[in-house]
Amino acid sequence: MNAWPAIETLVPHTGPMLLIDTVLSHAPDRVSVEVVIRKSQLFFRPGFGVPAYVGLEMMAQAVCAWDSLKRRHGGQAPAMGFLLGCRRYKTARPHFRERECLRIEAISLMGGAAMGSFECRILDESGLELASGVISAYRPTDLGADVGGLTGVNAGTQTGVQTGTQTGVQT
């Protein structure tokens, strides 16, 4: 049994856009999460698996889980954040395979109240590194003031979007 909160309470994505399954461990400067690659996943391609470029979003969701747990420990609710980019994203192969159990690790390199940089990697069950990169993220201190003028952003919602997407784009 996992002692961590359900991933749905830590990452604001819903349905098929929630790409990670559970938290494995958390510390003040790092998190480890897990996902099992399944046919039912949004990005799954029969005969191939999930494209390795989707690992970038898995890493970002791991960072989100870390931030939510850190905020929870401080008595604060989870907050919406934005993936700004990734440097040096490398993959060992083009796809993550069906039924493969992946561990995504994120380590905080630097961060303040709103900006952060995280060294991330995706490992298979044997510990082989399948992907790595450095994620940059931004969590606005006031979503309405910081991004309320963007098309499709509804600052009155917790997730800051009007539809089921988490990109800030109305669909």
Descriptive keywords:
globular; alpha+beta; two-stranded antiparallel ribbon; 6-stranded antiparallel beta sheet; Thiol Ester Dehydrase, Chain A; 171 residues
Topology:
Layout: E1 22-27, E2 30-36, E3 50-51, H1 55-73, E4 82-91, E5 95-96, E6 101-111, E7 115-123, E8 129-138, H2 143-147
Spatial order of the strands forming the largest sheet: 1-2-6-7-8-4
Report the helical percentage. Answer: 10-25%
Low-pLDDT runs of 5+ residues are 151-171
CATH topology of the largest domain: Thiol Ester Dehydrase, Chain A
Distance between the termini: 37 Å
Indicate the CATH architecture of the largest domain.
Answer: Roll
Radius of gyration: 16 Å
CATH superfamily of the largest domain: Hotdog Thioesterase
Percentage of residues in DSSP E strands: 25-35%
Largest sheet: 6 strands, antiparallel
CATH class value of the largest domain = Alpha Beta
Tally of DSSP helical segments: 2
The total strand number stands at 8
Categorize the overall geometry: globular
Global mean pLDDT:
84
Would you kindly provide a written description of the structure presented here, covering whatever features stand out?
The structure is a single chain. This protein is an alpha+beta fold and 171 residues long. It has two domains: 7-139, Thiol Ester Dehydrase, Chain A; 142-171, no CATH class. 14% of the residues lie in helices and 33% in strands. The chain has two helices and eight strands, in the order βββαβββββα. It is globular and about 45 Å long.
